[in-house]
Amino acid sequence: MIRLTGNTLTLDDVHQVVFSGQKVQLDLQAKVNIEKNRQTVETFLKEKKIMYGINTGFGKLSNILIDEVDLEQLQINLLHSHACGVGEPFSEEVSRAMLLLRANALACGFSGVRPALIERMLDLLNAGIHPVIPAQGSLGASGDLAPLAHLALPLIGKGEVFYQGKRIASQNALQQANLQPIKLKPKEGLALINGTQAMTAVGVLSYLEMEKMLYQSELIAALSFEGLQGIIDAFEPAIHHVRGHKEQIEVAARMCKILQGSKLTTKQAELRVQDAYSLRCIPQVLGACWQTLHYAKEKLEIEINAVTDNPIIFTDEKKILSGGNFHGEPIAFAMDFLKLGIAEVANISERRIERLVNPQLNDLPAFLSPNPGLQSGAMILQYSAASLVSENKTLAHPASVDSIPSSANQEDHVSMGTTAARHAYMMIQNTRNVLAIELICALQACEYRGVANMAKTTRKFYKRARNIIPSMIKDRIFAEDIARAAHWLKEADDSYVSERWENTK
């Protein structure tokens, strides 16, 4: 059971909740703090203090005071009017992550909500009731308004949810789970939608997938290295220590460990003096990709425990302050930076694919074909990889450099952080397919070279992969191979990570 305190959630906790169905409950001390914070709002209401979004309109309408009798309706109207998302919905995993992260943000005790509201969010999470949230429509400032409005609708019995494998009306799911819609109190509607939880949820899932994929990219690169009889001297520790980048040093160390004992690697000047960059510079390129991931991790770990509401209620100081913590710029930058790393994993992978299939660049059968000419072999596999790499380049354009004013120019600078996160996630899927293609080609090249001559680690990986991807003995519908390989890479047990690289992380 994970207890939400508002400031102790970890990325591993998110993984456990999203993918393993770990149950969540509100921490008792956090509940006390949240209740005190709510009482501050109630006191201000009794004192008829003017408070943004509590007894005023929103955005450019913030100068309009709302009658006391309409304060609860104001919150309902807010959710109705802001639920303007479009496009295909986020996955259920993203929806789960958003529920968890928004509940944790409210659990910080600065948002002026009742504990009952947070507990009802956790009821949905624990019951597997996942709001249907259209993926497009957020500017990434003033919070992820549209996505979070859709997230909040089921709490009041509105909108749709995914429940038990079906997309159904929220009211029906609540009834089946013996839950009642909640009645919003002043401030609570606004508290639900002011935040960065859409971009952060997608960002966290992108981080988790990217970390696993980077480890896999090293294993696959090692297979290609053997298939192309790469020069192992390039991974000598001395080369990398004199430059000093920690991640580069670690990648080089892992490559040496993976390839230890291989009879397919060569020494300097044995076959050639130097390798092409896509082999020789694996530590330099993938090390830099790890740097983008580490930067994203640092910002995500802060954001999942951050107060991103507006206004913020300070209990001890008896203050209610308007600010801009909902602005997604930190996550927008992190996701745009991560996109560069994702793009380069695919970019260098595609170059190795080309070296594996191009008969002008190796001594393997042309396009790894068992019968070149009659059978095209892996020729068009490289085309598909090139297409995905090119698409990644368009998605890698930084979303955060764009801004479109909104709310009659009151909200005149926005982050586009959710677009950055969505594009990062799309690029990860593209890159996994590129790696799947490299894997198919590298397996075949190693087979031609002699599996018995492979390193112990790569040979074990080869045998596991061959259970998914058969040997290329004749032309077949390779789309099926790519799909199987990509699915295997995404779903594969990643225990080998801790087994093989524990001392070089």
Automatic annotation (TrEMBL):
This is Histidine ammonia-lyase. It is an enzyme of class 4 (lyase). Pathway: Amino-acid degradation; L-histidine degradation into L-glutamate; N-formimidoyl-L-glutamate from L-histidine: step 1/3. It catalyses: L-histidine = trans-urocanate + NH4(+). One of its GO terms (molecular function) is histidine ammonia-lyase activity. There is a cross-link at A141-G143 (5-imidazolinone (Ala-Gly)). Belongs to the PAL/histidase family. InterPro entries: Aromatic_Lyase, Fumarase/histidase_N, HutH, L-Aspartase-like, Phe/His_NH3-lyase_AS. Gene3D superfamilies: Fumarase/aspartase (Central domain) (1.20.200.10), Fumarase/aspartase (N-terminal domain) (1.10.275.10). Its EC number is 4.3.1.3. It comes from Oceanobacillus luteolus. HAMAP family: His_ammonia_lyase. Contains an active site 4-methylidene-imidazol-5-one (MIO), which is formed autocatalytically by cyclization and dehydration of residues Ala-Ser-Gly. Keywords: Cytoplasm, Histidine metabolism, Lyase. It is found in: Cytoplasm. The modification 2,3-didehydroalanine (Ser) is found at S142.
